[in-house]
Amino acid sequence: MRSISAEVRTLVEKMNSRAKELGMNDTVFKNCNGLDEEGHITSAYDVALMSRELTKHEKIFDYTSIWLDNLRGGKTQIVNTKTGTTNDAGCCMSATATRGDVSLISVVLGCKTGKERFADAAALLDYGFANVSVKELTLPEDMPKSIEVNGGMTDSVKLECKVSSKIVVDKGNGAKITTEIDLPDKIDAPVEKNRKIGTLTYLVNSKKVQSFDICAGDSVQKTSFGALLEYVFASLISL
Q1: Distance between CA 222 and CA 149 in Å, rounded?
Q2: How far apart are CA 119 and CA 211, in angstroms?
Q3: Beta strands 207-216 and 156-160: pairing type?
Q4: CB 125 within 8 A of CB 107
Q5: pTM of the model
Q6: Which stretch of 68-72, 82-86, 200-204, 220-224 has the lowest confidence by average pLDDT?
Q7: Distance CA 55, CA 103 (A)
Q8: Count of alpha carbons within 13 angstroms of residue 219, beta-carbon side
Q9: Which residues have C-beta within 8 Å of that of residue 108, sequence separation ≥ 6?
Q10: What is the torsional sign of CA 126, 128, 131, 137?
Q11: CA 224, 226, 229, 231 torsion-angle sign
Q12: What is the pLDDT of residue 15?
């Protein structure tokens, strides 16, 4: 690595750390400008992961939509060429588009020309919109609403499972969404509210795609003389 300032080195370290957090396992940043440098590498999949994270912040579209702007009261003019091009990487591009409730990201690397880059990115997006759809996950009808509790002040506790997610499925393969519920027959007291009791798993054509925790919706004390006395006292107060 060529000589860089301490500030830039710190930034590069943070970039690599964040990349690992996002699962960009094929990426190593050696600089923060994106120019060619030995060991400075990434993959189309990793760029897609990074792009997906960026698109969560709506402000990014303000920057990507700017072609010409002025700084320092008009003394400096900047032009956003959006080239994405270096000698080693070729012409590259990450593009996103939305149709209805489907948002897709396409990444192309190593194109020979800018025209080819835009055409390939558009073709990937068109292919995606033609072949995938989004399904919202909902709780299955056979989801238990409670579970039996042994040795508790109440003989059962309600169950909660927060499912708020969507999955992408292929339009053409007759995608079948099924669920698997992993729960014990009963649990022992004491039970703390929000304690994980089991797991709800969603499958598409028998392949696991997403799981959610099934948790206790309330607390249940273990039966004891003190707990019984407290229960009786609370009952008398409520009369």
Answers
A1: 10
A2: 37
A3: antiparallel
A4: no
A5: 0.70
A6: 68-72
A7: 10
A8: 4
A9: 44, 92, 93, 117, 120, 121, 124
A10: negative
A11: negative
A12: 97
